[in-house]
């Protein structure tokens, strides 16, 4: 399937990351599932403590 | 280290699940609660001085000072509070909790919930109803007259009924409430009905005259949120035995005073870890907007701490609409997300819409920071000015900074740097 064919077909979306993308697609009637995901603790100090505390 | 923490957290969970909370009495706070003295006001959230208090909290304190006879009017009461003549302490420091402003003073009746497994007792005032009430900063004659009726009529009637009934076990009521669409924070209609069904015969047997019995039954039946305060005392009775388990990263309290959000963690004892409260995101009653809203407030987050409220949103699709959280599927998603940050699932409190999975229980500060997912809280919204009352309901997140501070302190306590 080429890109044009793909975009003209019924799209179903699995969205990872920013929830607003999923919300906007949903408002336009696109079947969308949002996966809650965020990078591991962003703060280096906290990441270090979490590793030492067995997380 | 991991095994040590996991073992401590398992112990914390076992204590939560082993709890047997029973509503045993309703008594004036000054009689029931050790150390609650004259000219002392207990409030929601972590400790705070008068200067940093928000409008509704100040308004409620002024109302309470008039109610207790410490001042003749609200203006004099506010002056008295500002002068330092009234001592302020968190409810949590007295084994108690209170919704929104959370005001507790000596003459106010408190419900006494005993955790029969561990022998500890927890306290919460009676729910005043909706709209203009002291928990939302209300303080006029209507509010104070209602408080007097709670102290003179409802409190004693419930106390007599509970004595006749020999106490009322609460765990089963909550379990049934979850199967009837309550999450015990912003929706308590099922549990209030179940409570009324359980207590009515005893109220009738203990009642002096039909007229006063009717007014008591009417007051409870007219207030869908009556059970909220019972659920809060239950939450406090369940979490208190979890305090102070060395090596445990489980949260034992989340609480807000309208200025600061505070959490306590089992392994760090009774220390508070605070950060500025956030604004709830929600729906407003007709005539009000976000401009009118006060930031997040109340000890009611104790229900989320034991896996109810925003954590059990899957049980209560109707509440998702009330708090502006979206559809029934969204309600289920909130609960699914809370599984990511909790240590276990409650074997007794199950959620029908999730194939009877147990409510997500035991917030682990490590998981909160690891995933970046903050606890979800269902909450009422107070007007920012004192004396107005509730203006809406919504959802708010616990500030991540509380968990960062808690983890740093926990690590230090464990000798990890």
What would you say this structure looks like, in words?
Chain A has 55 residues and is an alpha+beta fold. Chain A has one domain. In chain A, 44% of the residues lie in helices and 15% in strands. A two-stranded parallel sheet of chain A has the order 1-2. In chain A, helix 2 links the parallel strand 1 and strand 2. Chain A is elongated. Chain B is α+β, with helices and mostly antiparallel strands and 417 residues long. In chain B, 40% of the residues lie in helices and 21% in strands. Chain B has a five-stranded mixed sheet. In chain B, strands 10-9-8-12 form a four-stranded antiparallel sheet. In chain B, helix 6 crosses helix 7 (189-206), helix 7 runs antiparallel to helix 8 and helix 13 (365-371) packs across helix 14. The model of chain B has no long low-confidence stretch (mean pLDDT 94). Chain B starts with a helix and ends with a helix. Chain B has helices spanning 2-18, 29-32, 55-67, 74-83, 141-165, 171-179, 189-206, 210-221, 226-239, 302-305, 317-322, 328-339, 365-371, 400-413, and strands at residues 21-28, 40-43, 87-90, 96-97, 109-115, 120-125, 168-169, 251-257, 260-265, 273-276, 281-284, 297-298, 342-351, 357-363, 376-382, 390-397. The relative contact order of chain B is 0.16. The chains are: A alpha+beta (55), B alpha+beta (417). At the A-B interface, helix 3 of A face helix 1, helix 13 and helix 14 of B.
């Amino acid at each position: 399937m080429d890109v044009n064919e793909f975009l003209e077909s019924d799209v179903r979306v699995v969205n990872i990351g920013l929830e607003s993308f999923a919300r906007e697609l949903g408002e336009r009637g696109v079947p969308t599932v949002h996966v809650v995901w965020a990078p591991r603790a962003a703060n280096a100090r906290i990441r270090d403590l979490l590793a030492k505390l067995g997380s | 280290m991991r095994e040590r923490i996991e073992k401590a957290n398992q112990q914390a969970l076992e204590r939560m699940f082993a709890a047997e909370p029973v509503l045993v009495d309703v008594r004036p706070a000054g009689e029931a609660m050790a150390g609650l003295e004259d000219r002392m006001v207990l409030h929601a959230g972590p400790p705070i001085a008068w200067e940093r208090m928000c409008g509704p909290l100040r308004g409620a304190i002024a109302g309470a000072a008039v109610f207790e006879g410490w001042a003749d009017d609200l203006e004099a009461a506010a002056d008295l509070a500002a002068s330092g003549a009234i001592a302020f302490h968190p409810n949590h420091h007295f084994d108690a909790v209170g919704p929104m402003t959370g005001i507790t003073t000596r003459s106010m009746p408190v419900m006494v919930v005993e955790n029969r497994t561990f022998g500890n007792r927890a306290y919460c005032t009676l729910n005043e109803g909706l709209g203009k009430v002291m928990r939302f900063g209300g303080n006029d004659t209507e509010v104070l007259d209602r408080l007097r009726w709670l102290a003179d009529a409802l409190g004693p009637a419930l106390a007599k009924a509970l004595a006749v009934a020999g106490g009322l076990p609460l765990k089963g009521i909550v379990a049934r409430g979850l199967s009837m669409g309550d999450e015990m924070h912003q929706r308590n209609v099922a549990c209030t009905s179940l409570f009324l069904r359980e207590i009515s015969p005893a109220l009738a047997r203990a009642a002096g005259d039909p007229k006063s019995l009717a007014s008591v039954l009417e007051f409870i039946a007219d207030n869908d949120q009556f059970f909220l305060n019972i659920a809060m005392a239950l939450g406090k009775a369940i979490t208190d035995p979890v305090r102070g388990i060395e090596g445990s990263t489980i949260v034992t309290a989340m609480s807000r005073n309208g200025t600061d959000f505070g959490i306590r963690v089992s392994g760090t004892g009774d220390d508070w870890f605070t950060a500025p409260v956030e604004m709830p995101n929600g729906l407003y009653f007709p005539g009000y907007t976000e401009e009118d809203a006060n930031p997040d407030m109340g000890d009611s987050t104790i229900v989320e701490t034991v896996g109810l409220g925003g954590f059990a949103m899957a049980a209560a699709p109707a509440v998702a609409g009330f708090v502006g959280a979206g559809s029934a599927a969204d309600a289920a998603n909130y609960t699914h997300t809370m599984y990511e940050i909790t240590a276990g699932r409650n074997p007794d409190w199950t959620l029908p819409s999730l194939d009877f999975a147990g409510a997500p229980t035991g917030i682990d500060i490590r998981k909160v920071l690891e995933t970046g997912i903050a606890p979800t809280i269902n909450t009422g919204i107070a007007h920012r000015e004192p004396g107005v009352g509730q203006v809406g309901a919504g959802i708010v997140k616990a500030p991540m900074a509380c968990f960062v501070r808690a983890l740093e302190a926990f690590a230090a306590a464990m000798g990890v740097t």
